[in-house]
Amino acid sequence: MAAVGLTYNLIHEDAIGDKPIDSIAEFDTGETIDALVNALKEGGHSVIPIEADEGVVETIKRHRKHLDIVFNIAEGIRGESRESHVPAILEMLGIPYVGSGPLTLAICLSKVRTKEILLSYGIPTPAYQVFRSGRDSLVRNLRFPLIAKLSNEGSSMGLSYASVVDNEKELRKQVASLLDIYREPVLVEEFIEGREFGIPIIGNTPPVCLPLIEFHFHGERSITIFVPDKPLDIFSERQYEIPDPKVTNECPARVDTETERMLTGLAIRSYNALECRDWCRLEIRVDRGGNPFVIELNPIAGIDPTYRFAVSAEIAGLPYERLINKILLFAMERYGMDTGWYRDVFGG
After folding, report:
1. What integer is the mean pLDDT of 195-223?
2. Which one in 17, 106, 157, 296 has a CA-CA gap of 20 to 30 Å to 271?
3. For residues 346 and 181, what is the distance between their CA atoms, to the nearest angstrom?
4. Please, what is the average pLDDT of the chain?
5. pLDDT at residue 236 tops 80
6. Element (H or E) spanning 106, and its range?
7. What is the pLDDT of residue 333?
8. pTM to 2 decimal places
C-alpha cells in the first residue's frame, strides 16, 4: 500500500470575486474530494489531502517525507499554464505523481498549441484563427458557422449559446465580449455540425479507450456550456442565472464497428502525440460527411463519480474505486513502484 497525497483546487466562496461564474468551472467540490479520498482508501492507501492554494509548496514540503506518490487533479489558480504548476513542483521535489507532465498539461490547456501539434501529426482538427484584438482581420478561408472560444481555458469556460456565430458581425461582437471579460486571446474555429463524442482513455503501454460517450444536444446550438454542480447560494448573495444545458449523454454510444475503430484510433493517436499519461478525456466531432475532428484533450478530466469519465468506466466494468486505483496503478508502474497491492485488493 502507499501513502498518497491528493492535490486539488476546491471551490470557495471567494473563488469568484468579481469574475464570471464559470471562473470556478474547473475547481472541485468537497464531495468530489471526499469520493477520491474514499476510493483511494478502498485500495488500502493512506491519503493526505493537499489543497493547491498559494501555500501549496510549503504544504507539500511539510508532508514530503510521508508521501510515496501524489494523485494530482489540481487545476491551478492562475496563469496561462496553471495546470502545470503542481506537477512542476512535484518534479522539482522528486515526488512521483499521477497524470501527465508539466509540458503536456501546459500545451493541452492551450487549444492553439494543441491544434498545432495535432496538425503536425496529421490528426484532423477544425480550421481556426486566433484573435488577440477585436481589430484583427478575419481569415477569408474560414467558413461559417464559426465558434469563438477562450484559447487557454477548459471546462466550457467562456462558452454560451452566442458562441456559435453565422456571420462576421456576430463574430466580432462575441470576440469583443470575450476579450473584454476574460482578457486572453480568442480561438475562432469552424464549427463542426454533426455528432460529438467523449472518449476517456486510461493507461500507458498501451493506453486503452473506455466506452464512447455521445453527447445529444437538444437546444438551438449543439454545444456544451458550463452549469454549476451545486446551488449557487454558496457564493454569498450574488445571483446568477443557471443556464439550461440542453444536453444528455449516451454511453456506450451507438456507433458501428468501423466508426468506433476510427474514433478510438484517432483518440489514441492524439493521446500519444501530446504525450499524455495515465488518463485523459478527448472530445471528437464527426461531421455529416463522416469526417472526424479532434476538438480538445483534457488530461485532468472531471473525475467525480457522477461525471462522464466514471460512468464510462463503470460500463467497462470498473466501478469508481477500481477506476481511481487503476489510474494510480498505471502511474506507479511508470515509476517502477510495487503494484502488488492492486491484485491483493481487487483481484487482478
Report:
1. 92
2. 157
3. 48
4. 90
5. no
6. helix 102-109
7. 97
8. 0.91
Rounded CA-CA distance 264/239 in Å is 42
- Are 287 and 293 contacting, i.e. CB atoms less than 8 angstroms apart? yes
Give how far the C-alpha of residue 250 lies from the chain's centroid of Cα atoms, to the nearest Å. Answer: 19
- Is 40 within 8 Å of 47 (Cβ atoms)? yes
262-266: long-range contacts, CB 8 A cutoff, minimum separation 24 = 262/292, 263/197, 263/199, 263/212, 263/292, 264/199, 264/209, 264/212, 266/123, 266/124, 266/292, 266/294
**Residue carrying C-alpha cell 522528486:** 94
Contact of 90 with 70, CB cutoff 8 Å = yes
Q: Tell me the C-alpha distance between 71 and 74, whole Å.
A: 9
Which residue type is seen at 56?
V
Q: Where are the beta strands (DSSP E) in the chain?
A: 3-8, 46-51, 69-72, 97-98, 128-131, 146-150, 164-165, 186-190, 194-202, 208-209, 213-217, 247-250, 279-287, 292-298
What does the buried/exposed string (b/e) look like for 230-246 if buried means 16 or more CB atoms within 10 Å of the residue's CB? eeeeebeeeeeeeeeeb
